[in-house]
Specification:
Length: 121
């Protein structure tokens, strides 16, 4: 069982930056691939970024490439999402997720409760 708690969301102006954190419980954090998803107003949840278990591999959806960076600290049991050059269309609830398999789909086993990111124009 893995419990995930996101933090770091908030209100930021277009062009600004935020760093999201997701703290995981348990002693097997390094056994899980981690990912960030988001769900904007009136939209379906979409994949944002994923990182493999020891952080060697990362993958991003096209709309955030070059602006967002996913990273992890397996000592602190935390995954991060550094978001730069934010745009109003990045406004969404951001969720972190964990799964034994490194993947870009929705089939993650564990999910956090989400943190709101609002980008004003």
């Amino acid at each position: 069982q893995v419990q995930l708690v996101e933090s770091g969301g908030g209100l930021v102006q277009s062009g600004g930056s935020l760093r999201l954190s997701c703290a995981a419980s348990g002693r097997t954090f390094s056994s899980y691939a981690m990912a960030w998803f988001r769900q904007g107003p009136g939209k379906e949840r979409e994949f944002v970024a994923a990182i493999s278990r020891i952080g060697v591999s990362t993958y991003y959806t096209d709309s955030v490439k070059g602006r967002f960076t996913i990273s992890r600290d397996n000592v602190k049991n935390t995954v991060y999402l550094q978001m730069n050059s934010l745009k109003p269309e990045d406004t969404a609830v951001y969720y972190c997720a964990a799964d034994r398999n490194y993947q870009m789909g929705n089939s993650y086993s564990y999910w956090g409760q989400g943190t709101q990111v609002t980008v004003s124009s």
